[in-house]
Amino acid sequence: xxxxxxxxxxxxxxxxxxxxxxxxxxxxxxxxxxxxxxxxxxxxxxxxxxxxxxxxxxxxxxxxxxxxxxxxxxxxxxxxxxxxxxxxxxxxxxxxxxxxxxxxxxxxxxxxxxxxxxxxxxxxxxxxxxxxxxxxxxxxxxxxxxxxxxxxxxxxxxxxxxxxxxxxxxxxxxxxxxxxxxxxxxxxxxxxxxxxxxxxxxxxxxxxxxxxxxxxxxxxxx
Length: 222
Ligand SMILES: N[C@@H](CCC(=O)N[C@@H](CS)C(=O)NCC(=O)O)C(=O)O
Hints:
The protein is α+β, with helices and mostly antiparallel strands. It is built from eight helices and four strands. Bound molecules: glutathione.
């Protein structure tokens, strides 16, 4: 059986869940409390971070970037990295944008500060980081809106890993009520479109104990 070790609000895990689901690859989910530093998990990923995928052939893969590239090569149906050389370069540029820049400037300042830091035993949330996260979200959301208004999907004419990376970060932030969708109509329309896809349903059904999402989180007509 194929197993994905994850945490429900981990954007990198969410990206891999969406990639597997878009490709219609069946898998089982296992929550990995990385802060417990389980020995068997450390053996699979010495970085002790999720996601980790154990494929049906027994191969164990760590890091969402490596996993998604592997999935597109091993399971070429419903390609997610684009068709032409130019499309593939643009998909990779935007995946890096969301997983590096957006993560460092927004997700890390909000989700990590408010949720992960305590679980990892890294102290209290830093109010200045949280303020910076909210301030940075606005221009990033406007950029998503601009991309969505000038192209069919974020990286070009077809849905790609760039959309999944962006949606992974934004859905995790939406769960903790941190996205003000009125900041960009284009981003909101794009998110409503991607959120309606069957691949998104399991993410919308996620519930973290002691932390309820806002009413609009799972609403397709939010
Ligand atoms: N570059 C990695 C980042 C993975 C990552 O940072 N995962 C977080 C959860 S979102 C984690 O497990 N952190 C635990 C830790 O840093 O100790 C990827 O793309 O998979």
